[in-house]
Amino acid sequence: MSVTQKEIKTLARLSRLEFSDGEIEKFAPEFEEIIEFANKINEQVEGDTGSIREVVSRTVKWEDLREDEVKESLPNEKITSNVQAEGGYFPVRRVVK
Amino acid sequence: MKSVISILSSKLRSGEITSAQLTEQYIKEIEKHNPTLNAYVHLTFDEARANAAAADKLIKEGKATALTGIPFTLKDNIATDGLPTTCCSKILQGLKPYYDATVWSKLKAQGAVLLGKTNMDEFAMGSTSESSYFGAPLNPVDTTKVTGGSSGGVAAAVCANIAAYGLGSDTGGSIRQPASFCGIVGFKPTYGAVSRYGLIAYGSSLDQIGPMTQSVTDAAIVYDAIRGEDKADGTSVPTPDGKTVLNGDVKGLKIGIAEEYFDGVPSDIKSAIDGMVAAYERAGAQVVKVSIPALKLALPVYYIIACAEASSNLGRYDGIRYGFRATGYTSVDDMITKTRTEGFGKEVKKRIMLGTYVLSSGYFDAYYKKACLIRKAVESQMAEAFEKCDVLFAPTAPNTAFPLGYSGGNAVQTYLSDVCTVPVNIAGLPAISIPCGTDKGGMPIGVQIIGKKFDDSRVLDVAYFAEISGLSETADFKGGVRV
Fold it and tell me: What is the ipTM, given to two decimal places?
């Protein structure tokens, strides 16, 4: 399977990344090589891989979810300590005209 | 191997040395060796001195534990309140988190001394630590070689005795493989046994924090200090009360050997492991052949799942709330795109793109969903293998440390180096890498001992036999703090 330059541009837009045309030209074969590598999952192996229908999420133990309680938040000045905050807010360019 | 932690701890408790003095020794050695090794990327000597003063107070009050007053390091992806935590990425330059990772809170409470944050592949994505924004750390055994990765800085610091121990993180082998390359011990606990709160996420269903040490005894001490359920990490689980007991009794132990782990592994690595297994057999262990066919698919499955999770986890880096922000943008969307484009390195971008690809409509079923199914198969086939044996022995990596720059051009070639380590992450199992001789060029080889889920203490105990029988020796670096 080959990945078109157009597809790469779409993926880049979805990922909020930018590649120049020159970079895409270099990136395309590398990306294709990785996709080819990922395609190895279609190789057949012995044993039961096809009949497992249930994909159980390993990251959430639904029965163990805690109550949604409001707790004390971190202070505003700590949260904004990593940027040049303006009046306790994160400054960004105006979004509403 | 010697337990650096036990030796230092008894010196501290007997009053032979204070933590303040010991800390100054480490600082001196870091200043001497770090300019060459590039193991540390952020030095936290003020913090270390304050920690040492607190530790000396604990010791005086008779409240010392095994880790009180002992200087160590954290990988640069573990959050430290008010101290730099940058994942060795440009996009997080300047970031000082406003909370501590649970592992650091636990160690700090015991009087541990934080010397600094150590080098790693950007966002832990790599197997050589060369994708670090700060340049690669060098392997203390041979400085023309890589440390492995992604926890390469911790491995270099521990190997060079410029940290008594360190904490790394392991998503697909990032603790075990650099431990193997640098001739030290690296332990990846069962998924959930150690809280991930404050560990900057790469692949959340795979990531696990664990100790990198000079001995198995040290690994057990550190593991005991950091493990256990944490309300702040919903995937963490309770672990048994009490200390991990190490007996090193392997009589009747069933060692599983899966030939799939040895496919394409060079003869010197294979024979080193055979030699280790034979010594266990002489002590009364029994070898059982097992088969895990799905292991063949573990590597592509790992890259699909890890990158999918990464593309989502790294979505939060937008330049708005912390870290690097690009200039010269025309809109908020443009700012985010420019920040990410300038802030992320090449390998990280590649993995975000792959993750976005396998999650996008039209490809989701063919890649992500299928990978999740095979993951279950790997998990169940490994569980089946453990019905016939107690532990599996395998190489940690199909190679020893590469020369610097060797893997530069070819991503897939480097990915192959993770083939022996990723199955453990996919199945959430505990595994340790301990030194197992050297190759023809004198570079350390690692053997991996893999256990059942939550059988962490057995994994450590089986490895402990190698320590007390003199079967496993850590690399000897002529420098650093001599213990």
Answer: 0.89
